[in-house]
Amino acid sequence: MVFPADTKITKFIQYTSHCKGHDVHDTERQKDGKMRHPADSITWKDVDQKWPDFASETRNLRLALSSDGFNPFHGNRTDYSRWPVLLSIYNLPPWLCMKRRYIMLCLLISGPTEPGNDIDVFLQPLIEDLQELWHGKQMYDTYKKESFMLRGILLWTISDYPALGNLSGNVIKGYNACTICIDETKATRLVNYRKMVIMRHRRWLPRNHPYRRQKSAFDNTVEKGVAPVPLTGEEKNICEALVGTLLNIPGKTKDREYVRLDMAEMGIRTELRPKTPGKKEKSELVETLCQLEKHFPPSFFDVMIHLSVHLVREVKLCGPIFLHWMYPFERYLKAFKGYVRNPAHPEGCIAEAYVAEEAVECLVNFEKSTVGVSQNAKYEQNARPLSGATLTKPSDEDLHLAHLCFLQNTTNIRPYFE
């Protein structure tokens, strides 16, 4: 079931109260080097550097895609899996990015089984919408009262680890279970436990760290390996490398931060050691994992424990953790589960409730500017009944319901509900 993404983005742009926040990441964000917003991340800056024409329009959308399966039936007595595909917008302030009203449902993949690696077939309509958005769409900014060409880009996906394998096509099990280390995962199979474990976290420690020489406390070996570095795909052309390094050309230079770290560990020109934000946190995290290796059995160290080594890297690439974790989307899945009233047609119930909720929200956003007369606070404060009756003021929710009921029973507006 497809909910066109371009239609939802158009409605989002047309909300007058929302348009002010389209470029808040550029106009109101504190640019002091601290990590507060995805705009402070490496990925965001790489996009700006690679496509400067895209970055020149600050209202262009930066999106994230999330998908996960859930059982729509209460009690989970039936083996049934439903996969919604959601989009979130990062142009907003950080306290609004993960709010439910700014998370858009674009696809609802039917069950009863999960799509697995065939999820790319279901994602094709959404991919076409995103490709169209990348090329640009003429929009009208109701806040600035001007037309502009809106474009959008998908920065990353947000999912749990099993869903990551389906969305990216990477191997998430076996000897290469880590999608970052890949061939350098160094997993070990426990014969009796019949599962793969990932240890050897001493590789991420400095080369002179005492843990590397402790044999009996770990796996009875001295750790001489080094931490794997994610592949960069740089060219090996000598002239290009020489010129790029001398002129410090971004993307061409070989004078990188991790190279200076290696030089410092080798005792070469230690004064060039970079002051890297997050290095202390990563070192402490690795030491904690090594201490766990000394006391916990090997079966404890599955791939999920190993992935914590890369948390600092993820923060650098994507920004604050709370803006790219699964909790907001999982809470939204619980809301979808509450939409199901007829177990025979769970998809229809979810779609009907979602569209109705979206329609009501649209009416509420435009209510003050389209319906009713202006209120006078002076007369409202002095208002009282003529007799001795008690004055009762309905709540905002009751007023909205009464307003919706009135619109649904108005002859001129009824065709829009149908």
Describe the structure using short key phrases.
two-stranded antiparallel sheet, alpha+beta, 8 strands, single chain, 2 domains, 11% strand, 18 helices, 4-stranded mixed beta sheet, globular, 418 residues
Main sheet record: 4 strands, mixed
Adjacency order of strands in the biggest sheet: 3-2-1-6
Please give the number of β-strands.
Answer: 8
The low-pLDDT segments are 231-238
Envelope shape: globular
Helix fraction by DSSP (H/I, runs of at least 4): 25-40%
How many domain units? 2
Which oligomeric form is depicted? single chain
Content-based structural category: alpha+beta
Distance separating the two termini: 19 Å
What is the tally of helical segments?
A: 18
Overall pLDDT: 80
What's the alpha carbon Rg, rounded to whole Å? Answer: 27 Å
Share in β-strands:
5-15%
- Secondary-structure element string: HHHHHEEEHHEEEHEEHHHHHHHHHH
